[in-house]
Amino acid sequence: MKKDITNRLTALRAIMIRKGISAFIVPSTDPHSGEYVPEYWETRKWISGFTGSAGTVVITLDKAGLWTDSRYFLQAEEQLEGTGIILFKERVPGTPTIANWLGQVLQPNEKVGIDGWVNTVSEAENLILELKKYRLSLITIEDPFIYLWQNRPSLPSEPIFILPETYSGRSCKEKLDLINNELQKSQANALLLSSLDEIAWTLNLRGKDVHCNPVFVSYLLITPQANTLYIYPEKINQEVMAYLEHQQIQTKPYTAIEQDLKDIQGMQFLLPPTTNFTLYQTIATQNDIIRQTSPVTFLKAIKNETEIAGFHKAMKRDGVAMVRFLKWLKETIRTSQETEMSIDQKLYELRAEQDEFQGISFDTIAGYQEHGAIVHYEATPETSSQLKAEGLLLLDSGAQYLDGTTDITRTISLGPVTEEQKKDYTLVLKGFIALSTAEFPHGTCGTQLDILARQYMWKDGINYGHGTGHGVGHFLNVHEGPHQIRMNYVPAPLLPGMTITNEPGIYKAGKYGIRTENTMLVVPSRETEFGVFYKFEPLTLCPIDQEAILPEMLTTEEKAWLNQYHKNVYEALNPMLSEAEKQWLRNATLPLS
Questions:
Q1: d(CA 211, CA 550)
Q2: 66 inside domain
Q3: Which of 124, 148, 172 is the last residue of a domain?
Q4: What crossing angle do the helices spanning 305-332 and 579-588 adopt, rounded to 10°?
Q5: Burial class of 550 by CB neighbour count within 10 A (0 to 12, 13 to 18, 19+)
Q6: For residue 331, what are the CA distances in angstroms to 38, 154, 324?
Q7: pLDDT tens-digit profile of 560-583?
Q8: How many independent structural domains does the chain possess?
Q9: Tens digits of per-residue pLDDT, 329-341?
């Protein structure tokens, strides 16, 4: 594999020479700015061998580097070894930005190339400004992987399907009316949606084009004259075509989008900064641009009553699957020969038994002991560890159901654990409870709450590099914006109806990893003379392993919260379980003394 990577880099450099560029930048995204992309656009993975979901590769004529965040440092070091690609650790002091590095290794007046279809306008414009400081210029070139990638996966052709209003809670027409109202507020009359989850949400359609994400490759153009879906025709069956016609949505081939945009003049386009650079330039040539976040981003993030009810139902079914899994694992660990991969398969089978199951919401992270310290670890036949009746297993998993998306992490004690592990486990739990119990005034953003989850580990000189929480889609992408809980500033306020995860963790390289995660719902709390306050309601229903807790580290209030949460879990799941499962859950949710 390492030889393949070096050969691919050599072939790319030959194209770079022909194009007259001295560097080429390969992001992880596709023309729709997706976090997870169809295999066709996994060019960064193909050229580098690095399989993480986030990262950017930069290739010069004699050097190469990969920029990625702390979730992937350990993974990237392993996968890049022997390829000649240098790892640059983002947000670590001393790490140069891509533009800084190119300014050091290139000569003035040299050209840097990108594929404008897979780079956002905000990224491209920032690069232009930064590279200008070093007298370097940015140009767009045709996708070189068309010629380089032998047996490149084809674009997905799976049919799309309708998500009924019994699940979505609002009709497509209602959603388009809401969008047009927001456009009027912004003094815009046209909108190009390119984010796949926003298109799926707007049209009440779902697909299977992206692994774990029920979306489909398309664009949606909203103008006063027509609403047009650009999509490969073979993806639309007669039922969906009739539905689209009824909703007054016309369809055109996916590849017609650029030419159609060239023909539009004199419009006031609202364009998100995540629009790809090529289409942005096409529109900006003959139209006025209002650079603003898509109105769909907030509309989609605030769940309606039907979606919230669906989340509750999905979480119950997912909780049943998790309880059955935990019972099986705890009872068989001493006698079975289970591995990280085999338990992943077992959990999948238990979820697949549940009504409305549509697949997993992301690849399961099952990291035993030292593998738990690799934040986005994914077991392979070569790395899959055999589990023993000792130590900690970090299990981060989720599912897609027609009525909701789940995301849960539990760190599971498989037998005796060390005092250090117990202490760290309890530090994580304290931060998890502190965030779970937060009350905050209207206008609060996730950055202002992030310290609640970190405060106890900070006092112990410990930190983690990933965000504390992300939005969760409704039978859509498991990662959803605009709101987040993280250290770096994200201004989007937390509002009632938003779903958000709570997932602090501690990771000690070569030893173990610990993370506890629930998905929560923002709900009203109270109104006082100081304004309106909100709080979090846990959606996830699954016991938190108490075997690794040091009770003396918890306050009376923290124990009370944990006991009440476990009481709620037992009462919610009890009617759906067998007698043996009820007994196991009763023991797992006993009050912590």
A1: 39
A2: yes
A3: 148
A4: 90
A5: middle
A6: 39, 44, 11
A7: 999 999 999 999 999 999 999 999
A8: 3
A9: 999 999 989 999 9
List, as one string, the DSSP characters of 289-302: EEE---HHHHHHHB
CB of 23 closer than 8 Å to CB of 59: yes
Same domain as 402, residue 419: yes
Query: What is the three-class DSSP state of 403?
Result: coil
Domain residue limits at 340: 302-588
Average pLDDT, the chain: 96
Give the Cα separation of 169 and 303 in Å (integer): 9
Pairing verdict, β 86-89 and 64-68: parallel
Under the banding of pLDDT at 50, 70 and 90, the label for residue 2 is: confident
- Residue 252 parent element (H or E): strand 249-252
Look at residue 388 and give its three-state secondary structure.
coil
Residues 279 and 390 in one domain: no
With a cut of 90, say whether residue 446 has pLDDT above it.
yes
Examine the domain organization and report whether 276 and 310 are in the same domain: no
Q: Could you tell me the pTM of the whole model?
A: 0.95
Q: Is residue 312 part of a domain?
A: yes
Cβ-based neighbours of 393, under 8 Å, separated by 6 or more: 343, 366, 367, 368, 369, 372, 387, 411, 412, 414
pLDDT score of 326: 98
